[in-house]
Amino acid sequence: MAGRMARSVTAKRVLLSVACSVSVLVAAAGAAACSLDPPKVTPDPREVAKTADLVAIVRIDGVEPLTAAEDAELQRLLRDPPLNTPFRYPAPGLRFSTLRVLKGQMPNGVLIQNGATNCEVLLMPGQDYVLFAGQPARDGDRIAPLDGTFYLGKTERDRANLADVELSLTSSNPTPP
User: What's the CA gap between 47 and 51, in Å, rounded?
Assistant: First the structure.
């Protein structure tokens, strides 16, 4: 009887420990989410495709570290962020391969600007994406992904999203939601 009670108490402690760990992880994940007021809404990729200068399927090959000037700017912004002026933290550039261009012309020899915060478009090395972007303003500027850029995995849903984008670019009739 004493052994059964000890096992029961031990099992309850393990369950309580697991529950506490899960709640900490959920809280941490929530804290890492983008929090804006009003909330940020991801646009429909079909609509972004119509207005973007560049639409392409890209593979992120690697990360270029911040330059010394970018790192100095980042440190300055972390110490003394502007109070009432919009700004972007410097972020690493991404080397990429263009797998297919769906719209526009990809500039040669430039990097994609990765997001510096979780409220921006963040791309991971080794992954494929449907990239929506404006044409860089000057030679040598980085390509800035637009909201709506999405991960292109191997699922049916990913293929359907890509097909919707392709259809929106080839169809003169708007695609119904």
Answer: 7
